[in-house]
Amino acid sequence: MEQVDVLAVIGTCAPERRRYAKRLAAMTRRTFVPARRLALAPDPIDEALAVAPWSDAPAGAVIEFPEYTEVTELIGTLAAPDAPTRLTGVVCLVDAAHLRDDLHQDSYTRHPAPPGEHPSMGRHAAHALLAVNQIEYASVIVLVNWATLPTVDLSTVMALVSHLSPRARLRLHRNAIDRWECDTVYTVGQERPGWVGMLNGDYDPHMTDLRVSAFHYENVRPLHPGRLKHLLDERIEAGEFGAVIRSAGFCRFATRPQIIARWDHVGQVISFDSLGRDDDLGDEDDLLALGQDLAFIGIDLDTDALKKALDAAALTDTELAAGARAWVRFPDPFPSWPVVADRTE
After folding, report:
1. Please, are residues 90 and 137 in contact by the beta-carbon 8 Å criterion?
2. What is the C-alpha to C-alpha distance for residues 136 and 79, in angstroms, rounded to an integer?
3. Residues 229 and 248 sit within 8 Å (Cβ to Cβ)
4. Taking CA 163 as the corner, what is the angle to CA 214 and CA 23, rounded to the nearest 5 degrees?
5. What is the rounded CA–CA span in Å between residue 140 and residue 308?
6. Given the DSSP bridges, would you call strands 140-144 and 61-64 parallel, antiparallel or unpaired?
7. Secondary structure in 3-state letters for 127-190
8. What is the pTM of this model?
9. Rounded to a whole number, what is the distance in angstroms from the first to the last CA of the chain?
């Protein structure tokens, strides 16, 4: 069966997203599938996969997704090799005037359990993380409501978006939609986010601004969880080092020394998720990180001071020399991970 070409339109600005998706469908002569149709289904992404093959336009379909769609799941489903769809673009509409507010909210949305599963199998996702992921994985980012911003503020917003998603095309929304050029075919494995490029040494944002900066932080020493919690809650969130908009990568807690964790932060929201134990690695597997391997993106950052504060959250010479048996007795205020059966192992 021939795959149907799909352009996905995402974003938190529902009215602007809907209008843009309809106009894009008309301009590219594709079938338009509105978000309100997908929202009626238990899983909007599965519904999109089901309705896309019924597109009656030879060019394919423009599918508008509901506000807080998980873009990584969208890509994984529509770009799968055996899917009936071919994902050739992800367009994210961003409200320029409220971008920082959107990335600073601390509210959550609840995804219902899959059909047939117990309701308790549903999960919660932070709005800010969903919003930043949509920006990071987009192939085209369209800024709306930008005309109300002073030029200096617009420059900062555009540079911030470019730092978050350096591989995306950035456009200002005007009355007419620019001619669509398709040069992106999505695969399941995507490395589009700026933080991923920074860790890989492949990071070159097209837009710059004196207020926007990014840096790569590395430290092989594990973190003292108590000092890290104080740094996050009392200093970084308070803006002592400027506005840390996004930080992500890999880290280790001294209290869980054999486990590498994913550090995922935006605005007021941060999560640490276990990625596995060192002794679970096979002979062919690479160690993700010895200690901290993190990317930071922000506005008005005091980079040197933040690096020193991160260094201070890692183990001191004396603590390091004490060994893992002493480390596991450190205060650890963070939630436990399912893979951590016994902190004294």
Report:
1. yes
2. 17
3. no
4. 165
5. 36
6. unpaired
7. HHHHHHHHHHCCCEEEEECCCCCCHHHHHHHHHHHHHHCCCCEEEECCCCCCCCCCCCCCCCCC
8. 0.92
9. 52
Count of CA atoms in the C-beta half-sphere (13 A) of 330: 29
Domain covering 4-194, topology: Rossmann fold (3.40.50)
Contact 103, 245 (CB under 8 A): yes
Domain spans, the chain:
4-194, 211-327
Segment 221-275, tens digit of pLDDT:
999 999 999 999 999 999 999 999 999 999 999 999 899 999 999 999 999 999 9
For 319-333, how does the pLDDT look when each residue is reduced to its tens digit (9 = 90+)? Answer: 999 999 999 999 999
Number of residues that this document lists for the chain: 345
What tokens were used for 164? 């978050």
Bridge partner residues of 64 (DSSP) = 9
Structure token pair of residue 179: 């001619």
Give the relative orientation of helices 44-51 and 71-78 as an angle to the nearest 10 degrees.
30
Closest CA relative to residue 258, chosen from 226, 282, 290, 220: 290
Instruction: Look at the domain 211-327 and name its fold.
Output: Hypothetical Protein Yjia; Chain: A;domain 2 (3.30.1220)
16 Cβ contact list (under 8 Å, min separation 6) = 93, 95, 144, 145, 173
Alpha helix positions (H), the chain: 14-28, 35-38, 44-51, 71-78, 99-102, 127-136, 151-164, 194-199, 225-230, 303-313, 317-322, 324-327
4-194 and 211-327 have identical folds? no
